[in-house]
């Protein structure tokens, strides 16, 4: 008998009819004899409705109270799914974040899970009940309701799976797994039945939207296998992607997939003194403004000055630029410039560890198409390049073909 | 400095704009220097929306899970009102039933409050915050979410007022107080500025819809003054009705008002043995079916048998009749009959205690209009009669005039 944690996203529980379908699926799993814990999101559209009510107030109120409002969406779903299960004679019991003992820090709207008290859930499981837990929410040490940020339900699911030592964490969504790249960009993209958590981590952080990056980090840290499935498949025998420990994957490929992110912007500050601490002086004010920096590149000049380039989310571009200009004045920089029409393309694969020459092959393929590389960054299992946004699709298709990822590849 | 508990109903918080109006009103009260605790209902329409989602499931699921869903309505309002207050620089903090320490029994959908832990609210009040509490909800001893039944927010408000030893519990609604009778039936009905809790209790249980009967019972038991006000009045100097201890009301009138209830049905069983315990044999099965019995009347016959008549809510008529017929067979009754087109009219007034002849005057006035009385029931401060439903309005108007309750009365 296995213990399975399942998570259903907003479109999977988007209407009472969809909820009934989920209930039938959960019951089928239960009847195989497994213990089932289900994590639910708010019904699709519900979180936006609640955000709309808050926005109608034109409020500058606290995020504590926003979390109070937003956390109701998942509570509605958990009650409805429990009712749907009871209606088909499948005993169920719902848990709010608080009832599930999900304790977070007090960072409202982006709280992090600190601990889970699994005892009450274990007791109800032992009585044969299916457990339904509200995703996206917890309480801090003082009992204030917190939320984990958009997509936080994935994180709830993985955290519960870890706390309960589940055999697998299943993420039901509207696609049937992870693909070698986005099929909307490359029609020939192929389904990946199995990949390593570390690869998924790079795929997720490089812009693949199937799983929340925080959830994958959690799973990676605690070795929790995640399976991505579609809740729109008829049966339970459809395709899926198992994201698991590297050593559980027989075949290591050099390149598992091509990830990309078009929401990037690049900033450069030129002619700053090449002294220790200058990186901190440049990036400190940026991160103080809560702007996340992605890639960083520093060119050492010859005249005792240096050029410094970094990328950020495109939405933060104008704010970051004015901060950088202020820093530039203080440091006596010769120039501050930027570009918000860039994109990042990455190839990911655990096999890179043992294969040399992957980068060379990547650069050769891109240069053959005349695509100029503006920045390069590498890790053990991925290589990212920044290109002009207009080349994004061409770059993705080129790399997808160059590494033989398509279904028509030999 | 006073401590005031205010309760705002669904129409008072029916939209973000209405919530902003409530926030302004709460702030005005706060600025007078009083401590303010606010209890909120779900936005009007919200509870029906949630009930609709549940009904769409065609579920026979547990009331535990229904409470999980229904309790979210008030949680949304409490968060929105707190945000609206913070936006106008009035520090506020919201409390779910659980956070407010409202412990109930486990009777889901009609739970009764057992205790309230007022310590956390007191602490936040002492820091100058306005406290917003979700009405209608609590948790049982095991932390399961419970609801108090429709209109339960009034009960939450009074219970909190009692626990906090508030100076007054203000119920904001869409009318500006209690009237001598329903102005839709008697245009001449007059506003009552002050009446006794015991009178309100009889008015409420006799069908006056302004306050929830359970809330008034609670206030009566603990001597908590309730003020009924309209949240649609522009300022705070509009009309209101103070419902308070009898000894705080200088002028005792003989008849305070005329209450009525048209949702009544009458059942009669004839020719049953006139033995001890027969009443229990007749009414036991009725109350086992959760049908509430209102008036009861027993005529002793001459031949060792008796006739037994009682009234119930009209919605339960057919179920009660089939139960009664089964009982009739067992007891060898000569006849079971009923009428679901009856209504109850009552006059209420604490002054009745010291005035004789009120009943006579009532019966005289009704007989002058040719209205036949089918049942009569009296308490210390009220007299109720059952009449054919078609006479209801006539009876109410007749009594309203006979006891000089209209604004044109001398």
Automatic annotation (TrEMBL), chains A, B:
Database matches in Pfam families: AA_kinase (PF00696), ACT (PF01842), ACT_9 (PF22468)
Molecular function, one GO term: ATP binding
Pathway(s) it belongs to: Amino-acid biosynthesis; L-methionine biosynthesis via de novo pathway; L-homoserine from L-aspartate: step 1/3; Amino-acid biosynthesis; L-lysine biosynthesis via DAP pathway; (S)-tetrahydrodipicolinate from L-aspartate: step 1/4; Amino-acid biosynthesis; L-threonine biosynthesis; L-threonine from L-aspartate: step 1/5
Domain ACT, first and last residues per copy: 267-341, 347-410
E.C. numbers: 2.7.2.4
Keywords annotated in UniProt: Amino-acid biosynthesis, ATP-binding, Kinase, Lysine biosynthesis, Nucleotide-binding, Transferase
Record keyword ATP-binding present: yes
Positions of substrate binding: 47, 74
Catalytic activity: L-aspartate + ATP = 4-phospho-L-aspartate + ADP
Gene Ontology, cellular component aspect: cytosol
Residues holding ATP: 7-10, 173-174, 179, 184, 209-210
Entry's Gene Ontology BP terms: homoserine biosynthetic process; lysine biosynthetic process via diaminopimelate; threonine biosynthetic process
Signal sequence extent: none
Family note: Belongs to the aspartokinase family.
NCBIfam families to which the protein is assigned, alphabetical: asp_kin_monofn, asp_kinases, PRK06635.1-2, PRK06635.1-4
Protein name per Swiss-Prot or TrEMBL: Aspartokinase
